[in-house]
TrEMBL record:
The lineage of its organism: Bacteria, Pseudomonadati, Pseudomonadota, Alphaproteobacteria, Rhodobacterales. It comes from Szabonella alba. Residues 4-219 form the ABC transporter domain. It comes from the Bacteria. GO terms for molecular function: ATP binding; ATP hydrolysis activity. GO terms for biological process: response to zinc ion; zinc ion transport. Residues 235-259 are annotated as: Disordered. This is ATP-binding cassette domain-containing protein. Pfam families: ABC_tran. Keywords: ATP-binding, Cell membrane, Ion transport, Membrane, Nucleotide-binding, Translocase, Transport, Zinc, Zinc transport.
Length: 284
């Protein structure tokens, strides 16, 4: 059953077309992960699918009454407002103490219930956001860089938690992640976005493709090479490929796969330090 889909979606900000020709759907129980460089439109796409960001053209469809848990990349509320984690979980809909405690416990932050949001560490806040998304038994979890700020054990535990939640509730997951190795292991489908859907496929398909070895086979530099998607690699026959003339790189050049990857750099600083203001939590 399709939970949410977009057809021929485009989003413009002023004169700038940030997303174009996007066709994407998420079915029940699927884990779909969007990867792509900074500014490639990942958050905008999630927001458009949630109905927070109006589309310039195209269609967005959601199953009637779809229950969504959303972890935004940035939090809209002013963190300096006095508000405990517990109270935050009751926005916008009141939840019982038992339900709140269970969600916080599950996310490893049971002890911070009565702490002010502003006093939480980045990782603790991220866990509280996820706890809030789990409340109300969502059919779809929409997670925008949900592991930002988590330490390494926390990150591993988080992906396990996602898998557990899906197994228990059948919730689908649509997430943006920069944790490429985990993404490949934990997703049913991976979508590479760069203003448009550059390529997509199951991790298996991607992994079996020669291009996967070029992209991921050389340790960290290989994985990070996916971010150089503007783009000096070619997509192989195993990858569904959605663009042609609009593409700014040559997909036919066979020796382009690993070219120059070692020289390219992607630093964590590129998507760190974005603060906590902006997009608000959303419960549909
Ligand atoms: N409200 C807005 N008004 C104008 N431009 C915007 C707005 N929101 C996003 N953009 C622009 O749209 C582009 C895509 O932004 P978006 O936040 O979707 O990227 P992203 O892929 O999520 O990046 P990141 O990895 O840094 O989170 C960027 O160039 C951004 O500056
Ligand atoms: Mg983003």
């Amino acid at each position: 059953m399709t939970l949410v889909s977009v057809q021929s979606l485009a989003v413009r900000f002023g004169g700038a077309e940030v997303l174009r020709d996007i066709d994407l759907s998420v079915s029940a129980s699927e884990i779909v992960t969007i990867v792509g460089p900074n500014g490639s439109g990942k958050s905008t796409l999630l927001r458009a699918m949630l109905g927070i960001q109006p589309a310039s053209s195209g269609r967005v469809m959601r199953k009637a009454g779809l229950r969504i848990g959303y972890v935004p990349q940035r939090l809209a509320i002013d963190r300096s407002l006095p508000m405990t984690a517990r109270r935050f979980l009751s926005l916008p809909r009141r939840v019982s103490d038992a339900e709140a405690a269970a969600a916080l416990d599950r996310c490893g932050v049971g002890a911070v219930a009565e702490r002010q949001l502003v006093d939480l560490s980045g990782g603790q806040l991220q866990r509280v956001l996820f706890a809030r998304a789990l409340i109300g038994r969502p059919e779809l979890l929409v997670l925008d860089e949900p592991t930002q700020g988590l330490d390494q054990p926390g990150e591993a535990a988080f992906y396990q938690l996602i898998a557990d939640v899906r197994a228990e509730t059948g919730a689908a997951v649509l997430m943006v992640s920069h944790d490429l190795h985990v993404v490949m292991a934990a997703s049913d489908r991976v979508i590479c976005l760069n203003g448009h859907v550059c390529c997509e496929g199951t991790p298996q398909v991607v992994r079996d493709a020669p291009e996967y070895r070029a992209l991921f086979g050389y340790g960290t530099q290989g994985a990070l090479a996916l971010y150089r998607h503007d783009h000096d690699h070619n997509h192989g026959p195993g990858l569904a490929h959605h663009h042609d003339a609009a593409c700014d790189h040559d997909h036919s050049a066979p020796d382009h796969a690993a070219k120059d990857h070692a020289a390219k750099e992607y630093t964590a600083a590129g998507h760190a330090g974005e603060g906590h203001s902006g997009t608000g939590p959303h419960h549909a």
